[in-house]
Amino acid sequence: MFVDKATIKVKAGDGGNGAVAFHREKYVAAGGPDGGDGGRGGNIIIVVDSHMSTLMDFRYKRKYAALPGADGTGKRCNGKDGQDLIIKVPRGTVVRNADTGAIMHDMSDDEPFVAAKGGRGGWGNAHFATPTRQAPRFAKNGTRGEELSLTLELKLLADVGLVGFPNVGKSTLLSAVTKARPKIADYHFTTLFPNLGVVYAGEGRSFVMADIPGIIEGASEGAGLGFDFLRHIDRCRLLVHLVDVSGIEGRDPIEDFETINEELALYNEELASRPMIVAANKCDIVQDGEKLEEFRSYMRENGMELYEISAATHAGVKELIDAVSQKLSGLPPVKVFEPEPEAIEEMPKDGAKDLEMQQEDGVWYVRGAWLERLLDRVNLSDYESRMYFDRMLRGAGVFARLEELGIKDGDTVDLYGLEFEYQR
């Protein structure tokens, strides 16, 4: 079964908790705190598997969770990091955030993508020892791993897409110019899923061609099979529009051509301007020569490249493939979808009131759900990110509330392990 879309839930591992422990050894008095840190939670990593061609594996398994980090122990032993979970997908899979629809990554290359980051390990009590607090009896818990729903959408990596009404000869043409062997029969919707083949047009010249299942009128609104597979045309650099000009089924070639183009434009306006070559197929069994001549005139008037072929007898096929290869040489590479920035969550203006603030041994501890989320997406090694972080805290009234509670210059502020000296 060909499956090209799936929604899954992923959960990265939680960070391990820090340990509260004290060094105890014979003849060593007051050994001090020696609790180790918790391990990092495992990441959810998506990689490309060139041997996969569909998303069938995700039809039955929908939930994926990485292992959590281990808790720290005494003797300053850190917990083991959680093992990353590797999810394999076919090349060309677009990963989206299922809740927002934003593109997170296009799996068109061999670079792995971290879809969900594991939680940070908590600090053991050894981190919190100071000259005035020599025996801290607390440690920091690990943070939660990211959890989200992902939509996996397979968009075939093909240079050329064959489009047209059902039974116009797309599968026959693909089998004639490649080693692909799609099912071919004399009835509509023989092809139920896209087929790919590599066309060798000469020494050093080759390209990938995709046979897109029959599109019909109303496909952009879900009629027929076209709506399910129109997404596979998105990447194609060039479209080859096959039209049945034989007249056997009593169809009008001009009307068919216009109908398919209209459906492509309704699905995606960009497809209306995609480079296109028209192939008049089944010329060997034409019933009405006047209809064919009208179609030729229509193509000339609209400035379209027209090639008259017979996919069954291979007549004119070489000339068509040579024209396609020549056209591709001047077109940009296969489209790669860029990640879309997600809307940044706005911090509440009075967010400080939702935070827990308490002082212990000269250290002000600030805790809260939105503060933890903010810390997770800020790169504290980058100056601009730190300035953004400072603006968010000030805008939420965090510093103002600390001053109301009596914080003084030089006091230490702890934000989930991030410590800094307070200055007005």
Strand content: 15-25%
Shape: elongated
Major sheet: arrangement of strands: 10-11-9-12-13-14
| DSSP helix fraction | 10-25%
Largest sheet: 6 strands, mixed
Q: CATH superfamily of the largest domain, please? A: P-loop containing nucleotide triphosphate hydrolases
Oligomerization state of this entry? Answer: single chain
Residue runs with pLDDT of under 50 for 5 or more positions: none
Radius of gyration: 31 Å
- Classify the fold: give the CATH topology of the largest domain: Rossmann fold
How many separate helices? 9
Structural class: alpha/beta
- Alpha-carbon distance between the two ends: 64 Å
Number of domains: 3
Mean pLDDT: 86
Task: Give the CATH architecture of the largest domain.
Answer: 3-Layer(aba) Sandwich
CATH level 1 name of the largest domain: Alpha Beta
Please give the number of β-strands: 18
Query: SSE order in H/E notation?
Result: EEEEEEEEEHEEHEHHEHEHEEHHHEE
Annotation keywords:
424 residues; alpha/beta; Spo0b-associated Gtp-binding Protein, Chain: A; Rossmann fold; GMP Synthetase, Chain A, domain 3; 6-stranded mixed β-sheet; 5-stranded mixed β-sheet; 9 helices; elongated
